[in-house]
Write a structure and sequence with these properties.
Elements (H helix, E strand, L loop, with lengths): L5 H15 L8 H14 L5 H9 L6 H9 L10 H18 L4 E7 L5 H16 L6 E8 L2 H9 L1 E2 L10 H7 E3 L5 E3 L1 H4 L2 E5 L11 E6 L8 H14 E9 L12 E6 L2 E6 L1
Parallel strand pairs: 1-2, 1-7, 2-6, 7-8
Antiparallel strand pairs: 3-5, 4-5, 8-10, 9-10
Bound molecules: S-adenosylmethionine (SAM).
Length: 274
Amino acid sequence: METIKTSDYQALQVYLRDACGILLRDSGLDLARRRLRPVLDNHQLASIEALLERLDRPGRSGLKEAVIDAITVSESRWFSEASVFSMLGDQVLPDIARRNAGKRVAIWSAACSTGQESYSIAMAASEFREQNPGNLGGVRVLATDTSRSALEVARRAHYELGPEDTNITSRRKERFFRSIEKGGWRISPEIRALVEFRELNLLQRTLPGKFDVVICQNALVYYSAEKRKAILTRFHATLNSGGYLIAGSSELAGEVPDLYEPIECHKGTAYRKR
Ligand SMILES: C[S@@+](CC[C@H](N)C(=O)[O-])C[C@H]1O[C@@H](n2cnc3c(N)ncnc32)[C@H](O)[C@@H]1O
């Protein structure tokens, strides 16, 4: 697939918008070509036209998930974004601990990719518990994504840490990581025990349980306003009374349903279930 015909690219845009709610920019043709190349190879398809034809056929080939996977890049970083972790530690956990003293806090890391976000949440909540003994009875993080390959990396819990990972201070490294002889770092058993990874597509209606906090970053940004609203409504249904949604700064595009009350925090806006 050296080039994509403009008409095929337009058909791909329509398919992704209508079937998946994903918005592909007019300027994204080259990017789409690069990202879809391995999908075409794996499914032995010669062109975008052949891909669209196969997507239209009934049956579950995993092709649709592979296309979503390719277009919505998998990448996660430690304690990123800073505002999200500040809202969690400075506003949301203290409020939940006040209202549910001694109870375990349940957090959903929605669209968790390779796990850095989810483990960071477990570490942040553990730090909060250490600094505020007796306030929270425990921590449970459910981390979900559609990407099987990303979930495999997350479950392996084995990472390289470089100079760019400045949020992993030497204190955190000592507490939450174990050095591996052949290179790299593994998440400590105590933190791994707090996080469960599960495959889940946010576009489906399945709700994974009840939570005090939902954290979602860098995933809704790919979707149409209509799909984003549907996902935010499902998040609302999973939240316990008074629970919070925390989203990345680019995630909501200013369109948050009235179901949530905006709570201005020092470094951003969290959304409390009404
Ligand atoms: C850029 S990563 C963000 C990872 C993490 N939230 C973070 O910010 O560190 C985007 C993730 O969203 C996931 N994703 C995209 N659409 C999804 C959907 N419909 N359901 C579940 N996960 C989805 C992708 O598989 C990818 O792993």
